[in-house]
Amino acid sequence: MEIEAAYKYCESVTKIHAKTFYFAAKFLPEQKRKPIYAVYALCRHVDDAVDEAEISSEARAIEAVENWKAKLDEVYKSESNEENSQYGIQNKNSKNQDLVLIAWKDLLKKYKIPQNLPLELMKGVLQDTHVKRYETFEELYVYCWRVASTVGLMSSEIFGYEKPETLEYAEALGIAMQLTNILRDIKEDAAMSRIYLPQEDLRRFNITERQIFDGEINTDFTELMKFQVARARKYYEKSYKGIALLEKDARFTVLLALRIYSRILNEIERQKYDVFRKRAGTNLRQKIFSIPRVWLEAKKF
């Protein structure tokens, strides 16, 4: 069946590219698990499309995003008027794109995800093609909201909630996770001439861009990292308050993702903030061993 094939494809994308997200989502009931995979697959495809197009030019990246916007707009319009959309399969890439769109058309029948959220995500992904520095944390926050909080807000419509303030906590979790990504990937981003750490923070701790490009660790850099880790933890702490506001069958999954992802900060600390020598992360064993403790924690809500 076409819809099942579409969801299967979305699951495979999630399994390959988002191991923590996939691991946590496995504990959702099927009717929520499949659309969650579709949400991630859309995010991944847009990101990959921009990355591939950016190699040629920024104009090609913009064209790739505009293509996704048009196709998604078609899905939203067809969902509202029950028309059948034909996406026109031409090659492997377009076929995979169509599978994601088929899954989205199906999930929108049950879950009302505002169209502005995937559009904001696309805007954030495209931002990477021309914004390589952020002067203030406020500027960085907007970027984090676009590329990460939007995912949490879309997912919340699938997880289920009653109180609108739930979305405030979902936003905070997205910020926390993206800040974690930024700290984990300083080396990789620097290799692409990108520095996401706010320029105001670099100046505050007497860190030069050359130091980051050279992977130089000193007391000043350590203090900078401590400050950034503490900031990320503040958002994890805020997001925790929203777990109890989600529907019961989604609480464990979200809490597990929160606990596993925040553990990356522990690994950065364990490495004495040397993110240049080794990329901090969690392995499958650590994830599995975290299940009983998180399960008991989730039962308290």
Give your account of this protein's structure.
The protein has 301 residues and is an all-alpha fold. It folds into 2 domains: 122 residues, no CATH class; 171 residues, Orthogonal Bundle (Farnesyl Diphosphate Synthase). 73% of the residues lie in helices and 0% in strands. Helix 3 packs antiparallel against helix 5. It starts with a helix and ends with a helix.
Give the CA-CA distance, first to last residue. Answer: 38 Å
CATH topology of the largest domain: Farnesyl Diphosphate Synthase
- What is the CATH superfamily of the largest domain? Farnesyl Diphosphate Synthase
Low-pLDDT runs of 5+ residues are 87-91
Helix residue percentage: over 70%
Estimated share of beta-strand residues: under 5%
β-strand number: 0
Mean pLDDT: 92
Biggest sheet details: none
CATH architecture classification name of the largest domain: Orthogonal Bundle
**CA-based gyration radius:** 20 Å
Question: Which geometry do the CA atoms define?
Answer: globular
Number of continuous helical runs: 14
Please tell me the total number of domains.
Answer: 2
CATH class annotation of the largest domain: Mainly Alpha
Give the SSE string: HHHHHHHHHHHHHH
Question: In a nutshell, what does this entry contain?
Answer:
By secondary structure, this protein is an all-alpha fold. It has helices spanning 2-17, 19-25, 30-54, 58-81, 92-107, 116-127, 137-159, 166-184, 186-191, 199-204, 209-214, 219-240, 248-270, 284-299.
Task: Please give the structural blueprint.
Elements: H1 2-17, H2 19-25, H3 30-54, H4 58-81, H5 92-107, H6 116-127, H7 137-159, H8 166-184, H9 186-191, H10 199-204, H11 209-214, H12 219-240, H13 248-270, H14 284-299
Helix pairs in contact: 1-2, 1-3, 1-5, 2-13, 3-4, 3-5, 3-6, 3-7, 4-5, 4-6, 6-7, 7-8, 8-12, 8-13, 12-13, 13-14
